[in-house]
Amino acid sequence: MGTPFKLTYSTMFNPPAELHARFDAALADFKVHGLGRDHPQWIGGQAVEGGERFEVRSPIDQDWMVGRFVQGSAADVDRAVQAARAAYPAWAATPWRERVALLRRAARLIEERVYAISAAVAVEVGKNRMEAIGEVQETADLIDWYCDQMESHDGFDRPLADDPLPHFASHNRAVLRPYGVWAVIAPFNFPFALAGGPLGPALIAGNTAVFKCSPETSLSGWLLLECLRDAGLPPGVINFVTGGDDTGRALAQHPAVAGITFTGSHAVGMQVLRQAMQGPYPKPCITEMGGKNATIVSRHGDVERAALGILRSAFGLSGQKCSACSRVYVERPAAPALRERLVQLTRDIAVGDPTQQAHWMGPVIDRRAYERYARLAEHLRSVGQIDTGGEWLTGGDLARGFFVAPTVARAPLQDAAWVDEHFLPVVLVGEVDSVDEGIDRANASDYGLTAGFYGTADEVARFHARIEAGVTYANRPQGATTGAWPGYQPFGGWKGSGSTGKAIGSFYYLQQYLREQSRTVVE
Q1: DSSP for 454-469?
Q2: Scanning 38, 101, 329, 369, which has its CA 20 to 30 A from the CA of 448?
Q3: Which residues of 64-99 are buried (b: 16+ CB within 10 A; e: fewer)?
Q4: Which of 449, 456, 152, 193 is nearest to 313 (CA)?
């Protein structure tokens, strides 16, 4: 059963008791029946096993074995791409209204399974229940959004004026058509939404697809595959492969892949983008590549709002969001009050097993992140100051996971910590002489994903006019730089944060999975 109330970010901030009861029941069931199972790949409408397998363990507790998955080979990837290629002509020829109906059915299945899927996502990723439920529901809403866009544009088939030629009837149309096989490579932090979000428009548009999640979150990918499969998509239209970097590289570089959507690091995203340009012709490549997101606080800003918004953006999902706030530029007169309040709120964060209602912040994803956090804390102590945090949390049950303290720190404004994306629950607070200096420093990054501001209406207008970021928030306590919901906030970056400037959940995203064909017929 689904939920009788609509899940949105509003629900996330004021959840009804029934939401918690349903999640708890789903979590208990998952721990009994869902953990430790073997899962196949899905190619050409069939489960495909393999020889070598890898284990996925929860970052909450390494004793929890989430599942075992096939280490996909280049041959598996080729088989998946060829299956998608064989299914493409019939799927592209399927009337767009029928494709929309099937994808809406998939969205309804996601909603019906929202708690079961969310429990698995929370355990696998280490995110709290509200963020897990929000991610899964958002995936259904994204698919619905793109169905709405296809319908509102009448399938992107537009008649044009006849040529002004005497004695001839010359009829013209502009039609958007699919590309072929589309590859989707999703990251660990939003494995459901950042796989389902791109797959929805790719499939609605008439492309067939092969997708792969991060190896750390392979179960989330399998659960998404089940929703698409059970919705009735024909064999070969959707294919799922699992594995690590070699599997992803084989998919991104396959010559029969017509287009690709990649979400992950800037370094890998740029490699994918360059590869897409190096064949006999350029391929469409949508890359979302992270951020080094800044919040600017004016001396006139509401300190309480700013501190709460920064905290939620810096430490939600343990800072492992491309939209996380990792740097704050505050005008000097407001700096002492902001820093004091932010530190106080940070010390009050409940860190622990995030599937439990009492805990807001969970672990980082794996040992590499755990050790990266320790190195960053050591560096910040050597060049600046840690106001709170900066340590591993190893007491009791936390010792079996990768838990760290949310951290507020200072460093010289020219230090590399202000430049590098760390993907950790660490936020730097620095003082500036003016709002304009804060904007200048925010814009000095190669990234341009999200940005936040706290100040007066006049200052907000100046901020919007000058900031170089695709997603902006002003005077928002719910999150200084994070939080987007389909139909409310499109989400996509500028500069090094994205390759297209077209945002997820926007009015312009679906069209990227289509190419224009001009048709003239003379009678």
Answers
A1: ES-HHHHHHHHHH---
A2: 369
A3: bebbebbbbbeebbbbbbbbbbebbeebbeeebeeb
A4: 449
Q: For residues 322 and 423, what is the distance between their CA atoms, to the nearest angstrom?
A: 7
On whether the CB atoms of residues 133 and 19 are closer than 8 A, the answer is yes
- Angstrom CA distances, 119 to 20, 131, 245, 322, 332, stand at 11, 11, 26, 23, 44
Secondary structure of residue 34 in the 3-state scheme: helix
Q: What is the pTM of this model?
A: 0.95
Strand order in the sheet with 238-240: 46-48, 41-43, 238-240, 208-212, 181-185, 259-263, 285-288
List the chain pLDDT tens, one digit each, 523 residues: 445 545 554 556 678 899 999 999 999 999 999 999 999 999 999 999 988 999 999 999 999 999 999 999 999 999 999 999 999 999 999 999 999 999 999 999 999 999 999 999 999 999 999 999 999 999 999 999 999 999 999 999 999 999 988 888 999 999 999 999 999 999 999 999 999 999 999 999 999 999 999 999 999 999 999 999 999 999 999 999 999 999 999 999 999 999 999 999 999 999 999 999 998 999 999 999 999 999 999 999 999 999 999 999 999 999 999 999 999 999 999 999 999 999 999 999 999 999 999 999 999 999 999 999 999 999 999 999 999 999 999 999 999 999 999 999 999 999 999 999 999 999 999 999 999 999 999 999 999 999 999 999 999 999 999 999 999 999 999 999 999 888 899 999 999 999 999 999 999 999 999 999 999 999 8
Q: Please tell me the distance from the alpha carbon of residue 252 to that of residue 93, in angstroms, as a whole number.
A: 25
Question: Distances in Å between the alpha carbon of 477 and those of 13, 39, 305, 347?
Answer: 11, 41, 5, 18
Distances from the Cα of 446 to the Cαs of 88, 256, 291, 420, 442, in angstroms? 38, 32, 9, 10, 10
Choose among 42, 107, 479: nearest CA to 237. 42
Nearest to 239 by CA among 290, 181, 168: 181
